[in-house]
């Protein structure tokens, strides 16, 4: 089991997973969050189990929603935070890198396609991981499939063709 760094030892977890290092409602600049993550990742050289993390920024809504105090924030810097946290995580030497997170709008850690950011984060991930088997256009295929399903209504024959297309997508074909 893995836990947040400040809880890992006290609950007997096998290791810690990195998370955007926000606390106390403060906004952290790149130098501050990089320093905290590097300190955590330095445990890997000592044999500690650490899961590295990648994030586009952090901006929670907890205080505005009336559900608690804000943890703080990390500006996205138009994608620079994602790129830098990804590079740092990949260099850390952790056998596992997590992305925090796919669609957590409540914490501002969204990398899924949005109207505002488009496919920026997924394309950046493709490029940094040197994915050559699929290009940026392939990232748009699931949305196209969804839109086609909405458009055809109850047409069973076309639905069967789209099912086949979905299966091919899942098989990376």
Per-chain topology:
Elements: E1 2-3, H1 5-8, E2 15-17, E3 26-27, H2 30-41, E4 49-54, E5 58-59, H3 62-65, E6 72-74, H4 80-92, E7 97-99, H5 120-128, H6 141-152, H7 156-170
Parallel strand pairs: 1-2, 2-4, 3-6, 4-7
Antiparallel strand pairs: 5-6
Helix pairs in contact: 2-4, 4-5, 6-7
Quick structural overview:
This protein has 7 helices and 7 strands; from the N terminus they run βαββαββαβαβααα.
Explain what you see:
The chain has helices at 5-8, 30-41, 62-65, 80-92, 120-128, 141-152, 156-170; strands at residues 2-3, 15-17, 26-27, 49-54, 58-59, 72-74, 97-99. The model has no long low-confidence stretch (mean pLDDT 93). It is globular, with a radius of gyration of 19 Å. By secondary structure, it is α/β, with parallel strands linked by helices. The relative contact order is 0.12. Helix 2 (30-41) packs parallel to helix 4 (80-92) and helix 4 (80-92) runs parallel beside helix 5. A four-stranded parallel sheet has the order 1-2-4-7. The longest helix has 15 residues, at 156-170.
How many DSSP helices?
A: 7
Structural class based on helices, strands and sheet pairing: alpha/beta
Helix content: 25-40%
- Low-pLDDT stretches are none
Order of adjacent strands in the largest pleated sheet: 1-2-4-7
Strand content: 5-15%
Q: What is the distance, rounded to the nearest whole angstrom, between the alpha carbons of the first and last residues? A: 35 Å
Over all CA atoms, what is the radius of gyration? Answer: 19 Å
Summed over residues and divided by their number, the pLDDT gives a mean of: 93
Shape: globular
Oligomeric organization of the protein chains: single chain
Give the SSE order as H and E letters: EHEEHEEHEHEHHH
Largest sheet: 4 strands, parallel
Number of strands: 7
């Amino acid at each position: 089991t893995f836990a947040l760094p400040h809880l890992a030892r006290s609950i007997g977890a096998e290791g810690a997973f990195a998370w955007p290092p926000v606390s106390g409602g403060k906004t952290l600049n790149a130098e501050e969050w990089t320093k905290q993550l590097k300190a955590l990742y330095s445990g890997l050289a000592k044999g500690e189990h650490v899961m590295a993390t990648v994030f586009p920024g952090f901006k929670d809504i907890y205080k505005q929603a009336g559900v608690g105090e804000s943890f703080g924030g990390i500006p996205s810097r138009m994608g620079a935070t994602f790129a830098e946290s990804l590079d740092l995580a990949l260099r850390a030497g952790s056998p596992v890198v997590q992305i925090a997170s796919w669609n957590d709008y409540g914490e501002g850690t969204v990398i899924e396609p949005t109207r505002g950011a488009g496919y920026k984060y997924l394309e950046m991930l493709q490029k940094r991981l040197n994915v050559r088997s699929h290009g940026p256009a392939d990232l748009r295929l699931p949305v196209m499939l969804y839109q086609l399903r909405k458009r055809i209504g109850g047409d069973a024959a076309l639905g069967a063709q789209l099912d086949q297309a979905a299966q091919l997508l899942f098989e990376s074909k």
